[in-house]
Amino acid sequence: MKNGRVKIFDTTLRDGSQGMGISFSLDDKLRIAQVLDELGVDYIEGGWPGSNPKDISFFNEVRKLKFKRAKITAFSSTKRAYLNIEEDENIQTLVSSETPVFTIFGKSWDLHVEKALKVPLEENLKMIFETVRYLKKYSDEVVYDAEHFFDGYRENPEYALKTLKAAEEGGADVLVLADTNGGTPWFIVQKIISEVKSKIINTPFGIHAHNDSDMAIVNSLIAVSEGATQVQGTINGIGERCGNANLCSVIPNLYFKMGIETIPPENMKKLTFVSRLISELSNRAPVTNLPYVGENAFAHKGGIHVSAVRRETRTYEHIPPESVGNKRTILVSELSGRSNMLEKAKELGMEVDKNSPAVKKILDRVKEMESRGYYFEGAEASFELLFKSLISKVKKYFDLEGFRVFVWKDSEKAIPKSEAIIKGSVPDEVSRELGVKETFDHTSADGAGPVEALDKALRKVLEKFYPSLKKVRLVDYKVRILNEQLATKATTRVLIRSTDGKCTWGTVGVSDNIIEASWIALTDAFKYKLMKDDENGGEK
Known about the structure:
Strand order of the largest sheet: 1-2-3-4-5-6-7-8
Structural class: alpha/beta
């Protein structure tokens, strides 16, 4: 490997966008390209300009941007059979993209040549050679992707090698061996690459692995160990079917486990941010159990684990979470021990003596609440409110005595309507401080559903006393039935995520009444916002 480096070829914008449910807008694609450049990848495959207008627009716009490190590459197939290459619309559209690098894929499997392309084997070789040779006149580099190479080699090794030779003789700068169906085991990948190296190839080679047998990452690493100088993949492994090699694992595995540099080492801390940004722009929730960058990658729940991590992080963490921009998370549950509580207190900026009775009090309370169905792993805000209320004094922002919710439907075709009436008060000192005479007693509000009606009723009164609550909005609402066998009498857990535009937090409520469970989670969301405002010096 040249200079101990492997080049990263990111195809999130092309191969990644072929994943089910993923559709990047033009603005999304331009933003992702800039973020990938900041991460430090070597190549960004922007799309197939011959396939759709959006990709053509991308290449027109991306020319206006300046990139520090990454080279933009456009993608296409080899020329069509029996057609003069100057007359091939796909190839001419590719040339007009004016990218410094072109990526071309061609058929390596005789099955595809005969059944899909329906051309003679020799014609396919000619198509590969002529396309690469032609494109070399218009670009700095041509990357040749040998589609279905491993399947093709296993069935007809002689022909698969001829396809590589055709690309090499045409002037390809890199020959990329693709496991397009994603079903080749790692030991076969290793065997084939070893044989290919001994028979031909003076040109640098790379790997493009799909994940249909959950081997895309290991196949990429095996290829590097065999001499590959380029690895293709996508952020978070998104892509068609089961996706591609996940670069958020490939990059740190190469660096931390194999001592091979890809992106600049100082940029390794950007991996988690990039992973979660791509999830957001893909309109997908982040996968929490992804290695390195997932929310659970450095989460500790068992008390023995937490106790050990507090003494020496290496006991249960293979790398420091900060090295990839992630963070350690201490979970609280019925499995928690004293160490969890002490570490959580530290995380919340509170010093608690390990022998304090408060620690046992909190632990007992958490276990008792979880036995009733509470779940704090997705509701850190509710846990922080509970924790601080048990070991220190938490300000009482409002007192809610009760609520009524009415739901009615006027006719068969009418839309159901909801009204919430709440009763409560705020402390006298709050109303005096703000110069508001009333402290509130009853108020009501309508909503599309009972939870929205409760939300509106609370806001109607509280925002007069606490204006910062105007910024709070719900971004997620999840309902879970805990003991389905009880049918309509089952216990319900409601998880709510809220944001003020700067921070996002989760709260939880549990009851055998879904409205009360929602009410508990909703009021916790407001209390948490007000508590954090006070801790941060107030917000107007």
